[in-house]
Amino acid sequence: MLRAPTDRHIKIIRVFMKLYFVFHFLRPFLLLALMLFISACAEESAEPDANQGIGKNGSSDIEVSYNRDKQSIGSIDYALSVNGRKIPLSEIDALIELKLFDLEWARYELRKAALSDYLEIQQDLLDTRQGEQAANTIEVLLSPPVPPRLELSAAQHASALAFSSPQMDQAPVRLSVFCNYQSSHCARMQPIYQQLVDEYGQAIAFEFFDFPQAFHHFAVSASNAARCAHAMGEFEAFHKALWVNQLALSKETYLRIAKQLKLDEKLFSSCLQSESHLVSIQAHAELAKSFGFNNVPVTLVNGLYLYGPKTLEVFRYYIDLELIRLGYQGSRTVLNSGITASQDDVGDSARQEQSLPDDNEQASVETAEQGAGLPEDMPDQEDLEYKARAVVPPVGETPLSREWIEDQLLQQAELEAHFQAAEHEVEGVRLTKLSGVEQSEFYQTLGLQEGDVLMRVNEQWVHEAQNTLFESLETGTRVSVVLVRRGLPVQLVYTIQD
Amino acid sequence: MKIKKISLFGTFPLITLLLVMLSSANVHALPGKAAAGGDSITMGFAADCRYNYWFWDLFCLLGGDQPEHSWFDGNSSSVNSVHDRYKQLNSGIVANKNAAASGSEMRGGSNNFATQAANIVAQTTVPDHVEVALGGNDICNRDCTNPANCTNPVYTNDQWRASVKAGLNTLVSGLPSGSTVYLAGVPRVQDLRAAGLAKQATTYRINCNSIWSTFDICPIATNGGTLNGETHAQRYSALQTIQRQYNEILAQEAAAYTTNANGLNPRGIEVVSNYAGESVASTGTFKFTKDDIDGGDCFHPSVRGQNKVADLMWNRNTDK
Predict the structure, then answer these.
(1) What CATH number does domain A154-333 carry, 3.60.110.10, 3.40.50.920, 3.30.420.40, 3.40.30.10?
(2) I want to staple B93 with a disulfide (CB 3.0 to 4.6 A). Which of A126, A199, A440, B86 is the partner?
(3) What pTM value is reported for the model?
């Protein structure tokens, strides 16, 4: 027989039901907590006992123990306790400041990449709503990290090698470059540095610090030669010529450049021989190491540390920041301008923008006008798209003495004979190929090689019916030559010294 | 009911554990940062150059590298690069080919494999996936196949092997544990001539034969006559052997390093060869045709060729 439940029974049942539902609801959380507890216990038991001297280093008597809890008092984070004296984390970070910034930069690049992907998705959404809204405003608020500022003393600045103009103390922004002449990365940076000079003019000044790497066997001799030229008042031109000869650094090359700069041959040779600047070069290398630099290039923008090859845009950004900080007027470079919904190439995959300089456009038109016997079927617009590529930039400049050129051009007919018609024909004329370079002081000094095919001199094409090289060298002050060497394009620039 | 309770208690941690294991397995399978070493192929040189008939055609060649068309990390929509494919799996994967440069060799020159490897391990955040595509220039920059015929013959197998090992030694000692090095096969440069001749036969606006000879583009493979006493047939036959042997050495060294059979890779960095014998499709066995080379210099991969290289590399990539 079942008895009717009393009120007391009903209350008890209700309490049990409530407990059941609460337990049912909390069960996954309780299980998770239990698992974490077991896991923590397991980790703790796996940890060696602090009293057993964890982290003992060899025979050292220093006993180090690790505390899993973050040690912080107030807003200060501590990293270490030595006999009760707490060492702030910032003190340890200061030891690896540059490395931490490098990581910070990497984090910025990752964020840029993620932002770009995010924007791409958002762009699709915005596109679908384009009908609803008149315009979309996208502003990238991500900022690059602020690099640590490294202070160079007045004496250290004074020891650097600088161009004559602008004066170091007159330019508001000083770029201190740590490089060596054999580094391909440093060589590839030269067009960027040159472009900065062209853009900022008197606002920036360069100073160079030698940082030869152990595996760059000719870097020290090249630096010594540059310092010999510096002592004789011709650093800038010599420096630029060395980059052109980056793959041919030798005593012969140094002497050849010195001759064109009309440096006293005896003095220069003696300087090379004595290696009198090795101590200064070593001092620069020590300075670089004292900052914690391991590799080249390193560029300091008014002391702001930038490691490795960086794009033109990055340099502009920090130079502009400095100009603004110092109260100079001007527009600020937005470093994130490369982030667009359509551009998925960000992060580490920094790319050179392929843009069309005006001179190429003109040259293209010029060629069409000059071409003899053009077939009627001109290329269509689609074909012209890829002509918009910029010609490879020069990595340096080769100085040439006008007196020497005039002397050489006395045998112009002989020099012209080194160009021989090649097999390939363009618009009815054949390209020309250089031969007999090894026997020619002229072509060797120009840095040309056997088999080079000269394509353009300044804005003119070179072929069997037209070669303006000699005329340009004779009358010009700055001559650009674009050639193809073993299938790859090279641009050389000659500066004619009166 | 009791049984159900036991089952729930027992399966929950198990499922969680499995999920954790699966998720950690995913994390380890994909790299965080990829880097490439390579030459002009990796730099996308001349990829979209189509003709060499007009002077303005030649502007394309004078522009040089086209990094946007690189098989490795080209961002052009016309190339589905290895980096593009990685980003489909994880958008956070970054990539660079900063160490690569046109003209590079595995052995010779100023930016060989050893130098590129040193640059890769010196990067601020060291990559955990490295792809290396070198070797074409090691063949193309040589003057003859038989050392008796010239002073600049093709590298011997021992020389080639030493250069491969020099770069790998740097990578396996400098990359983080768990990293992968992926070696592309040496391309079949011996097929260049046939592909170029077929290409120029399609239009008057391309002349491969004359552009090769004028620009000295891989004469050992493209010259149709006698070069340093070696006929084209002789060179073709010799290159066939040399190119295969170079690839076999890449495969041998990859195996020796990845198993640490040579004792040079104690941290167990994975080294994988794209080449796995002549019967397996790889960059070392791919017989490129007229449409796979550009129409400017008839030498470098066209945009289509870059896509093909990306396919071949991706398909046999174990690190994904």
Answers:
(1) 3.40.30.10
(2) B86
(3) 0.78
